[in-house]
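OP here, attaching both records as promised.
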Amino acid sequence: MADLFKDILSAEESLFTNEMALDFDYLPKEIPHREGQQHYIAECIQLLLAGRMGKNLLITGAPGIGKTAAVKWVMREMEEKGLDEQAIPLYVNCWKKDTPHKILLDLCDQLKYKWVQNRNTDELFREVANIINKKAAVIVLDEVDKLESEQIIYQLLEDIFRKCIILITNDNEWISEVDARLRSRLLPETIEFKKYTPAETEDILKRRIKAAFVHNVWEEEAADLISEKTHEIGDMRYGLFLLRETGNIAEKKASRKIKKEHAEAAVARLGDFSIRKSSDLDEDEKHIVEAVKANAGKTSTEIYDVYKQKSGKAYRTFHRKLKSLEEAGLLAIEGDFTPTGGRVSRVRLKKA
């Protein structure tokens, strides 16, 4: 008689071997298809290690195409080779740390400086500068376009003696909008990351499958569907979500194989997925989400009027946060034509 249970996963078994390999911030041993960019980043830092001034660097490109991972990989290489004794690698994500004070508190924490209680921003900056100026530093400001003010960049340029400042942004136009004095002082080298090709997308996802799942549990049709959908979206984070979700669906069905039907079910759930959770939002972002929820289908200008009544902040701040919420998958901004032939942007929630 045939074994009726051979294709059924038992309660003690799992299709996953290392689910952490599907986390957005997981850093694999290799970052494939970004070797050229990593080499250039290392060249900009190498000058510091030779006792000279490093090159400043602006990294641009769409979300979810390896910008942050490439930089963090280089920083990890520095630490593993002991080069952090010569130049301190420091990383700040400006989505969460969007003011000079928040950034400096983060830097103090990384530099293991603990006396921050009741210290103002200028005092914290002096302490940070004193520590860094004993050596040199690679200072990475990720999502730099989310900063409330670019003044902190100017201070770093002026008061840190030997440094390599790396700025990462999804907004290719950001540098053209900052103060002219800052642009002329910064004079960054520029790297634009291009989206992954279909073959590169497939290779990256297959590597993650190998790292995260039991050998040979993925059927080829299922993996192909996830690769195709990820390339269509153009954001590798959605691919990682789909890999995890597909595996979870297969496990719930007690299947020993991850099949195309499981992948299709995961793709159907993409509308419920967002890069960031609502609980991660700051107060301004929560006000915008509430305004959009209460004014469904209104234009961005109308939403701003509601937001301004609560916050009193400028349209530039509103627009920056609106784009951030769109990138996070929480809002959708859609172009629409007016009866007179003009064009407006309408905003809606992507999640209930």
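Record two, same layout:
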Amino acid sequence: MSQSYQIFPTDAAKSHLSPTFLNNLHLKTTPIPTPGPNSVLLRIRAVSLNYRDLLIVANSPLYPVSAVPGLIPCCDGAGEIVSVGENSKWASNIGASVIVHPTHSWIDGNVSNYDFATTRGMGDIQGLLAQYVVIEDEWIVLGPKNLSFEEMASLPCAGATAVNVLSSVNVEKGTTVVTQGTGGVSCFVIQFASALGATVISTSSSAAKLAIAQKLGATHLINYNTSPSWSEDILRLTDNRGVDLVADVGGSGTIGETIKSLRQGGTACCIGFLAPPKEVDVVFDLMFKARTLKGVICFSRKMVEDMVVLVEEHDIHPPIEVYEWEDAKKAFEIYRDQKVVGKVVIKV
């Protein structure tokens, strides 16, 4: 038999801020599924959380797709191949450690190949917070040999998004990159960019978090609470040139400072909207400095494969906080409080 956490919405608040939103999440036992043709049965060993998972479990109207009753949440996970279906290309890889691609779309090429409606753990598309799942052959990737299952589970959404962000410019020695905060994507941008030779300038809200950013590879540190006009600090650090790339997770609340930080011809990638929103006019600062403002959504399977190579080659280990299977609800609560550096992971 297989255990899984499933969503049965009962909390009337429909908010992840509700103290009872996790009443929607129930532990269930079901038969172990059987893989069909060109698919594999995975024993999931670890799952990591994303902000979307909070909204989906809460049945929040802030998320565009509601969960059907009985939905298994979460799209980030890692496990091992237990068995395969007919004609599976993974037939000789029984026992292999693999990462699950979070969507059923975008193998390679342009972002136009991505279909939001194919993302796991939403609507009626089952996710990974289960002991056993069946996955089609093309949506798994061999995991890095240097990582545990818990570390591997933290990689897909945050790590591959970081790869997507860094693909926006040619990252090498001499490249300057700015990150915001110490969430999952920001931590991976720090680690990957510094491994590739870039100079990383990290902004965050406290000395403790900045110390962690420095351990991950950041060269320069800025506390945006004590320096709200932090673009001025960045210009000072770069001899008034500005930086090549900013990974912006704040949205409209930070985008003004982000764009002012860029060099002429620099690029800012929008990957979140965590800061309190505010009106901002960015047209002048973009146009007259030939700067690029780029929205980043998801990533291809090829980016996941590239990420695995990068993690192995540079022996990168992501910062994670791990919770046991029976403490899954506590993991959601901890993640909601946004006090964890890196990713929150549940052992399965």
